[in-house]
UniProtKB/TrEMBL annotation:
Record-given protein name: tRNA-uridine aminocarboxypropyltransferase 1
Organism: Jaculus jaculus (Lesser Egyptian jerboa)
Lineage of the organism: Eukaryota, Metazoa, Chordata, Craniata, Vertebrata
Role of this protein: Catalyzes the formation of 3-(3-amino-3-carboxypropyl)uridine (acp3U) at position 20 in the D-loop of several cytoplasmic tRNAs (acp3U(20)).
EC number assigned by the record: 2.5.1.25
The reaction(s) this protein catalyses: a uridine in tRNA + S-adenosyl-L-methionine = a 3-[(3S)-3-amino-3-carboxypropyl]uridine in tRNA + S-methyl-5'-thioadenosine + H(+)
InterPro entries noted in UniProt: DTW, tRNA_Mod/Golgi_Maint
Amino acid sequence: MAFNASVFLQENEESNSQRMEKKQLQNNLVASEDPLQNLCLASQEVLQKAQQSGRSRCLKCGGSRMFYCYTCYVPIENVPVEQIPLVKLPLKIDIIKHPNETDGKSTAVHAKLLAPEFVNIYTYPCIPEYEEKDHEVALIFPGPQSVSIKEISFHLQKRMKSKDRGPKDDPDIPSLKRKKTEEQEGCDLNESKCIGTTLKKIIFIDSTWNQTNKISTDERLQGLLQVELKTRKTCFWRHQKGKPDTFLSTIEAIYYFLVDYHTNILKEKYIGQYDNLLFFYSFMYRMIKNAKCSAVKKGKLSDKVK
Ligand SMILES: [Zn+2]
């Protein structure tokens, strides 16, 4: 009896795990269909042509590249700059790059190419000083202290107040205002709109997830408000093995942050204003997916021939 029960349990467990596996497979299939197909994008004809003609020269450094130069942050000879969309952002972005990160693999360059006026890329350990600006800057990075996008206004406002009061006052003494805000779970539209504008710059770390710790624990970034994006799933083709699929590539993280910021903080309707940030990303994603598909098809064909 005991034996039978354990067999039954085992079998039950097996079918459960099979079911889980099946579900995971279905999820993967849905995700792999094309999560980027409904974007509002400029014509990618220029990229199609460049893809057909192959690598070309960077007009600045002369290097042979595809689409853009990842060291000079400019499109290459066969991709005329006037055919690349320009995206206007609601705030400035600093990207801190790990020196060991392979430049050609980074998607941070996409942001610099598509919103050059708003984006700066720094190579660690050469990074700007943020200490004086910590009431208007946020580091987009997951961690035990990180808050959600919706909570940014509240936390920056708290910092601003403690700055106004000066160092003698204890910023952690809960004021009436803070209690009110906490109870209301955010503030009324006008107030939050005005507070929302205090965020002027967001910082992203561009590196493989294993290398980011060194940068994120740098004391120059330690005091900053940390914000975490939790709910988005990556479709990055270089997705790092063993990491959850909510670990985004840099350009995905920037894009999803801005979309959420637009609706939750600016309280404006999102109608694709930042979609062109994925101009290169979506094209390269599709290019790689097609290459994989045709490799699989070829594999099957050669199996049949055998
Ligand atoms: Zn170059």
